[in-house]
Specification:
By secondary structure, the chain is an alpha/beta fold. It is built from 22 helices and 11 strands. The longest helix has 44 residues.
Length: 535
């Protein structure tokens, strides 16, 4: 049928009841995918109906008592220029019809009404509305793609994967060429929460928090909001909000607590400029968040110039050793890690760090290394806060270093074994299996990356390297294969197949199918029926 999968509404307006009855009875509205939402006998009544039902199509007589059809049309199209307005006029009112066309009418009909002519007119009207919907979807898709691509690019810069802007330059608004600062929003005790939540609950909670953040950020003109690691989001602010940054952080915490009942903390970077400074801004905001572990409750923590440890002006933070420790974690090199711990112990002894300063430094490094372990590796089976409490209990630097050596060596060994068990192809195969089982749902890349226990950027890179497809390409191919099977082996209607393979809009499904196969679903079904008949 013409209107399968389509749904539009229409209002009929005429001061002659017999015409209204004939229009309702003689036009195949259901086949056209159009529903008559109401009828009115004058312009004033029509205006009330239009504002109540917001119809897509209005069919109205020109000459009516009170408000005539042209006045009604001007009012309606001023409120919504996208509506279809069809006018009906008598043979002696042709000039009125011409005026209606000049004022924006879609078409006109002369009385007595030819119902076949009106049916064809309505088909054209519905086709125009279809095209407009398709354009709107395309524009929305481009906007969504632009946002996703920009977020992916930002994430790569934060992770240090610098690359020329090249063909992605068109996706950037140049907001980062002006001063900005970053907030890192982190759910408190996320790993404990994650253990309690099922996968579905985790997706729901993370989706809810992102929605809260996006809605909140709009009122302040934030530059970007996107998830980075699990339980963590990035918010970029224009520097004009710098004087209010602490207040904004507390407001954000209150908003998330009020609407999700979850607790979070916020780390704030210093002002910076340029996309190439994203990684530095993130390091500053993340380092500010380390103060959360010295606090009794969630809070807002701002990055400042690194202060000397424990108030001793001669004590310097060993940034070079932090880098070496991080390299050891990234490469799962236990030997290098132990050598770094020994070098750190010698450094602290040489610098004569007081106990309080050494303890704070070790805790800060522990948090840095734990965060590195959480990125791109399976979840840890030990508690960070538990390790920190154990550090507090150590009576000497020797004991504290020995504790850290043992704890991180166990973790690196476990991660190495896990990597050997689940190498790249195994992880991608696991993701493919999940896609195969859930292709009919509204499946997101975030969801599949969670299943693979990888960050989104790591998952995208690995999936492409191993499978040769992007996530979206593979998902689309999977859906098309299922659709082709149904078209070849069942008599299920095309518009019914669409939602079975993950597309709620049958027209959009048809567009994707034709792009993938070179045929519409109907053409594909017919061609395979012909082949089967020959066999």
């Amino acid at each position: 049928m013409e209107g399968s999968g389509r749904h539009y509404t229409a209002i009929l307006v005429d001061d002659e009841p017999i015409i209204l009855r004939s229009l309702k009875a003689a036009i195949p509205w259901e086949e056209l995918g159009i529903e008559v939402a109401g009828v009115a006998k004058n312009g004033e009544g029509a205006l009330d109906l239009i504002r109540e039902h917001a119809p897509d199509i209005i069919i109205s007589d020109i000459r009516m008592p009170g408000m005539d059809g042209i006045t009604l049309m001007k009012e309606v199209l001023t409120e919504n220029p996208g509506r279809i307005f069809i006018v009906i006029s008598g043979y002696g009112e042709f000039e009125y019809a011409r005026e209606a066309l000049r004022q924006g009418a879609f078409d006109y009909l002369l009385k007595p009404i030819d119902h076949d002519e009106l049916t064809e007119m309505l088909k054209r009207a519905a086709a125009r509305l279809d095209a407009r919907r398709a354009d709107d979807r395309l524009l929305h898709s481009v906007q969504v793609l632009s946002v996703m691509a920009r977020e992916r690019m930002y994430a790569e810069w934060i992770e240090g994967n610098d690359r020329p802007r090249g063909p992605l330059a068109w996706l950037e608004s140049h907001e980062l060429d002006e001063d900005y600062f970053m907030a890192v929003v982190q759910l408190d005790h996320y790993h404990q929460l994650s253990e309690r939540w099922s996968m579905a609950e985790k997706r729901l909670w993370l989706f809810a928090v992102r929605n809260i953040l996006e809605e909140w950020s709009q009122q302040y003109g934030c530059l970007a909001v996107f998830p980075f690691h699990s339980g963590e989001w990035i918010v970029l602010f224009p520097d004009a909000l710098q004087p209010r940054k602490i207040t904004l952080g507390h407001d954000l915490i209150d908003r998330i607590r009020t609407y999700s009942k979850l607790k979070c903390s916020v780390g704030l970077s210093r002002t910076t400029r340029g996309i190439h400074q994203l990684s530095r801004a993130y390091d500053g905001a993340a380092r500010a968040l380390y103060q959360r572990f010295y606090s009794e409750q969630e809070g807002v923590f701002a990055d400042t110039e690194h202060k000397d440890m424990a108030g001793h002006p001669d004590l310097k933070y060993p940034k070079h050793l932090e880098s070496q420790l991080l390299d050891a974690i990234r490469t799962l090199d236990t030997g290098l890690l132990n050598a770094c711990w020994d070098e750190l112990k010698g450094y602290l002894e040489e610098q004569a760090y007081p106990k309080e300063g050494a303890e704070r430094l070790l805790i800060e490094l522990t948090i840095v290394l734990c965060r590195q372990l959480e990125q791109g590796n399976p979840p840890m089976d030990w508690r960070l806060d538990g390790l920190i409490h154990e550090l507090h209990d150590q009576g000497s630097l020797h004991d504290a270093i020995a504790l850290l050596k043992e704890a991180f060596a166990v973790q690196l060994t476990d991660h190495l074994k896990s990597q050997q068990r689940e190498d790249g192809p195994t992880v991608v195969e696991k993701a493919k299996q999940y896609i195969s089982n859930h292709y009919h749902q509204d499946l997101s890349i975030e969801e599949v990356a969670e299943v693979a226990d990888l960050s989104i950027s790591h998952f995208c890179t690995l999936f492409k390297q191993v499978s040769g497809y992007t996530f979206l390409e593979y998902l689309t191919e999977c859906r098309m294969d299922k659709a082709k099977y149904m078209l070849s082996h069942t008599s299920v209607k095309v518009y019914q197949i669409a939602p079975l393979v993950g597309y709620q809009d049958p027209k959009y499904f048809t567009q994707v199918f034709k792009k993938a196969t070179g045929q519409t679903p109907t053409e594909y079904r017919e061609s395979h029926a012909a082949i089967s008949g020959k066999n």
